[in-house]
Amino acid sequence: MNGALLEVEDLRIDIGSGESRHNAVENISFSIDRGETFGLVGESGCGKSITALATIGLLRRPLAISGGSIRFKGQDLRSLSAREMRKLRGNRIAMIFQEPMTALNPLSPVGRQIAEMFVLHQGASWHEAERKAVEALASVQVPAPDQRVKNYPHQMSGGMRQRVMIAIALACNPDLLIADEPTTALDVTVQAEILKLMQELCDARGTAVLMISHDLGVIAKMCRRVGVMYAGHMAEERAVADLFRTPAHPYTRGLLGSLPRLGSRGAHGRKRLQEIEGVVPSIAAFPAGCRFEPRCERATAICASTQPGQTDLGNNGFVRCFHHG
Amino acid sequence: MLRFALRRLLQMIPTVIAVSLLIFVIFSIVPGSIASSMIADGRGTNDPKLVERIKQEFGLDQPVHVRFGNYAWSLAQFDLGTSFRTRQPVSSMIGERLWPTLKLAFAAMCVAIVIGLPLGFIAALKPGSLLDSLTMIGAISGLSLPQFWLGLLVMYLFALTLGWLPSFGYGDGGLRNLILPALTLGVAPLALLARTTRAAVLEVMNADFIRTARSKGMNSFRLVKWHVVRNALVLVITTLGLQFGSMMGQAVVVEKLFSWPGLGSLLIDSVGLRDIPVVQGSILVLVLCFLLVNTLVDVLYAVIDPRISHG
Amino acid sequence: MGLRFNLVIGGVLCTLIIGAAVLAPWLANYNPIMDADLMNAELPPDAQFWFGTDAQGRDVFTRILYGAQVSLTVGIGSQLINTTIGLIFGISAGYFGGWWDDLVNGLTNLMLSIPSLIFALAIMAILGPGLVSLLIALGLTNWSWTCRIARSSTLSLKSQGYVQAAKTLGYGDGRIMATQILPNLIGPVLVIATLGMGDAILAEAALSYLGLGIRPPQPSWGNMLTDARELIVIAPWAAIFPGIAIFLTVLGLNLLGDGLRDWLDPQMRTRRA
C-alpha cells in the first residue's frame, strides 16, 4: 500500500462540541491508488459525503475531524496549514457536487467560473485563463465552447452544467477527483453520458476517482473496489466483482436486493424490489452495538451490545458483521 | 437591457393613473366643502357669498365627475392646478421644492449605503462576534427610534450645544446645512440595510456554489469578492427600493423639523392651510419619485442579475 | 443575542408599557391636563417631578403614563383593522381567484406604491386630528403585507388539497376559510401585526408631532414633542423623556416581533441548531 495516492486511516468525524457532541463517522479506512476509481456506497445519511468533504478539507462547523489520518501522497492533510491546503484543493484534489442546479454561481458566466481555476493555481492572467476555459469546455464535449463560455448557468441544461463542473474540477489535472453523487440529479440518459465522459477523461489523465453514490449500479459501472458505508461505519470493503458475487454484510445484500437490473438477469426474476425495512438511525441515536442491528434480520444479542470488528475476506476485502456470509 | 428599462417605465403608467385617481377620490370625499373649510380655518366665520365666489373660482361648484374630468385632463398636460392660497400654479411651487427634497433623500440614502452595507457585510462574515452583536443591537435600535426625535437630539448636540453646524434651514444649499437632516433621515434605512445585508450575506454563504468555490481552493478574500458580493447585493437591492418609499414619508417629518424647504414642508404647510391642490400635487410628486426610484432599482437589479433580463 | 434574548427583553418592555398604560391613574400623582401650573414650569427632574415639568408646568412623568394609553390604543387598534382587512382580502383573493384576485392584487400593489406615512397624512388632512381619525388613517394604510402573506398561504394550502378535502366533507366556503385556512395564518400574521404596531406608534408620534394627530392638551408622546424644538435648550427633559418612551416601546415590539418570527420560522430554527 506504499504507493497509494490517498490513504484514509481510522477517520473519525464528530458533530457538535461539548455536551451535544456526537460521532458521525468512525473507523473509516480505505486507500486509493493512482488512477484507481474507488466507490463509496450507502443510503443518504450514512456519512459518505462527510467523508468526502473531510478528504478535501471542506468540513465546516459543527462538523470536525476528531481522529485518524488522511494521507495524500504520503503527506498527512491534517498537518497542513490552511494556505497549504488551499494550494492542494482544486489543484491536486478536486470535487464535483451533486446539485448541478445550485453548485454554480448564478451571476457569473460559466467560462469565468472555469477560468478562476487557472488564475488561482497556475497564475494565469484573466485573458489567458478565459482562453484556456474555452479549451476546457471543449474537452468536456460541450458544443460551440467559444460561445458557451459566455453563458450563465441558468441558460444551460442540467447535463451541460455538470459538464461545466467536470471542466472546473479537471481544469488543473488533479491527481484525485472526488465525485459526490455526480449524476443523481440528472436524467437516466444524461447520467450514462456523464459517467462515460468522466471515465474517459480520468483514464486519459490518470486521475484517481473517489466515486460516491447511493446507486450500486453506478458504482459497478465505474469502480474496481468499493466500500459500503452504513451509519458512519464501513460495513464491508471489497473488490466490486467479489461484492456482487458474494455479498457478506446483510446491509450489502439489502442494497443489492434493491437493484432492479440484477433481478432481471436471472431467469426467475424478482417480482418486486427487495427493500430494507426501516431507516438509517440519526446521528444522535446510533445504537451501541452494530449500527445496522435494529434493521438487521440476522441480529442476535451480541449485535446489540458489541461493535463487530473487521473480518478478513481475502483479496484485500473485509466485513464488519458477526453473522456475515 | 434598454428594452427592459423601457418596459418597466411603461408598466409604471397604470400605477401612476391609479394613484392619481386614488388621491382625487380621497380629497373629494371631504366631509363639508373644501371652500368653506378653507375660509373657516381658525376664524369660525363663514360668509356664504365668499364661499360661493371661491367655489366658482376653483370650479368646486361643479359635480364630482366633471371635476375629475378636469383634474385628469390637466394632469395629462402636467398641470397640477392652481394654489388656493397663492394663486400660483402648483407645478411651479413644487418645482422649487423638488430639488431640495431629492438632494436630502439621496444624501440620506448615501449615508445608509456607505455605512450600512459594509457594516452588515462585516457582521455577517464574523457571525456571533462582538461586532456582529453590536451591529445587530444598533440596527434594531435604529429601527425603533422616532426619527424626528433623533433629529432633535443631533440638532441639540451638534448645532445648539457644540455650534458646529446650523440647526435649521437650507442656507446657501451647501453641505453644512445638509449634514444633520441627511444623517437623521439616513438612520432608519441604514439600520435596515445593515440587517438585510447581514441576512443576505449569511444566506449566500450557505449556498451550494460557495462550497464549489471553496473546493477550488480560493481564500476568503477572493471568495467574497468573486462570489459573495454580487449575489448578496441582488438580495439587498430590492429592500433598498422599498426603503426609499418609507424614506419619502419620513422626509416630510424631518424637513419640517429642520425647516428644510422641500416638498415635505410644502405638504405639511399646505395641509395646515387646507390648500388642497398643493397637497394633492405634492403627494402625487412624492409618490412619483418613489415609483421612479423603484423602477430604477428594478433596472439595476436586471443589470446585476442576468436571470431577470434573459427571462 | 439569540431567540431567547429577543423574546425576553421584548416581552419585558411590552409588559412594562402595558402596565404603565393600564395603571396610569394609580401611578400618576397629577392630572395630565388640569394640573398645569406656570409657577412650576420647566422644572428639572427631582423627587417631586420625576421627569421634570413642561412649559405649562405639567408633570412630564404623568403625561408619559397617559401618553402610553394613546400609543397603545393607536398601535393595537390600527393593527386590528389592518389585520382584519388584510386577512379578509388575502384569504378571499387566494380562495376564489379570478377577477377578485386580480382586483385585490392591484389594490395591494397600489397601496405598496404609496409610502404609508404620506398616505396616512393625506387621510388625517381630510378627517382632521383626533384618535378616531388616527385609527382610520393608520388602520387603512398598512394591510398590504398581511394581505400578501394571507393570499400566498391560502394558495399553497389550496394546492396541498386541504380545501378540496374540506369541500368533499360538505363544508361551505366561509367555513373552510375560517376553520381550514385562517388557523394556519395566525403565526405569520401575529409577527406582522407586532412589527406593525411599532410602526403605527412611530407614525402616530410623527403625525401628532406635526399637529395632525392627537390635539393638545390631551397628552400623546408625539405632541409632547411638538414644542420640544423650542424647549430643548431650556428644558431638555421635556423633549428627551417622551422620545425615550417611544423608543423603548417600539424597541420592545420589534424585539418581540423578531423573536416570534425566529421562533415560528422552522428554517431559521434549524439554521441555528
From TrEMBL, chain A:
GO terms for biological process: peptide transport; transmembrane transport. GO terms for cellular component: plasma membrane. Its main location: membrane. It is found in: Cell inner membrane. This is ABC transporter ATP-binding protein. Belongs to the ABC transporter superfamily. GO terms for molecular function: ATP binding; ATP hydrolysis activity. It is a peripheral membrane protein. SMART domains: AAA. The keyword Kinase does not apply. PANTHER family: DIPEPTIDE TRANSPORT ATP-BINDING PROTEIN DPPD, OLIGOPEPTIDE TRANSPORT ATP-BINDING PROTEIN APPD. Pfam families: ABC_tran, oligo_HPY. Residues 6-256 form the ABC transporter domain. Keywords: ATP-binding, Cell membrane, Membrane, Nucleotide-binding, Transport.
UniProtKB/TrEMBL annotation, chain B:
Its main location: membrane. It is found in: Cell membrane. The chain crosses the membrane at residues 12-34, 104-125, 137-158, 178-195, 232-253, 283-304. GO terms for cellular component: plasma membrane. It is a multi-pass membrane protein. Part of the ABC transporter complex GsiABCD involved in glutathione import. Probably responsible for the translocation of the substrate across the membrane. This is Glutathione transport system permease protein GsiC. It comes from Pseudaminobacter soli. The lineage of its organism: Bacteria, Pseudomonadati, Pseudomonadota, Alphaproteobacteria, Hyphomicrobiales.
Automatic annotation (TrEMBL), chain C:
Residues 68-257 form the ABC transmembrane type-1 domain. GO terms for biological process: transmembrane transport. The keyword Transport applies. The chain crosses the membrane at residues 7-28, 80-100, 112-136, 185-210, 231-256. PROSITE patterns: ABC_TM1. Keywords: Cell membrane, Membrane, Transmembrane, Transmembrane helix, Transport. InterPro entries: BP-dependent_transpt_permease (IPR050366), MetI-like (IPR000515), MetI-like_sf (IPR035906). It is a multi-pass membrane protein. Belongs to the binding-protein-dependent transport system permease family. PANTHER family: OLIGOPEPTIDE TRANSPORT SYSTEM PERMEASE PROTEIN APPC, PEPTIDE ABC TRANSPORTER PERMEASE PROTEIN. This is ABC transporter permease. It comes from Pseudaminobacter soli (ex Zhang et al. 2022).
